[in-house]
Design the sequence.
């Protein structure tokens, strides 16, 4: 598929996303920041990137890999994909019995491993810290229902 065609498909996806943002209902509470602000900002940023990609493709600056000879995948790509999927599956399977923080830590470690980070105490501490901070900010400060951080925490 040519880069221009990819840009057109991405533009259509952005159009559908923008349409979906307009379908987000207004909050019943009077808030300064509405429920559609962040989705609208993300869709706008992605649409701008798609526009830049499309212009670059029209100028011939994007590589057309459809004409390239068949290349095998990078070494270890299967293991990377498996660690990424295993992290997501671990989160989905363990979030109910173990709370949010432990499964999110395992998920983060799976994602980090997919990007070639070693599975170590350091990556566990970094992912655990990020999961705990995320849970504290969203569950405690903002009141998003993420469930307990840990089973023994309320």
Sequence:
């Amino acid at each position: 598929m040519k880069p221009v065609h990819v840009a057109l498909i991405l533009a259509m996806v952005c159009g559908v996303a923008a349409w979906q943002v307009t379908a987000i209902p207004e909050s019943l509470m009077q808030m300064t920041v509405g429920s559609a602000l962040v989705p609208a900002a993300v869709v706008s940023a992605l649409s701008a990137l798609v526009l830049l990609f499309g212009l670059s493709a029209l100028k011939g600056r994007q590589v057309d890999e459809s004409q390239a000879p068949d290349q095998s995948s990078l070494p270890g790509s299967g293991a990377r994909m498996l660690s990424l999927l295993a992290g997501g599956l671990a989160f989905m399977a363990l979030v109910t019995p173990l709370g949010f923080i432990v499964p999110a830590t395992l998920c983060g470690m799976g994602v980090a491993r997919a990007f070639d980070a070693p599975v170590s105490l350091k990556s566990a501490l970094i992912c655990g810290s990020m999961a705990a901070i995320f849970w504290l900010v969203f569950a405690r400060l903002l009141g998003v229902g993420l469930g307990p951080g840990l089973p023994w925490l309320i």
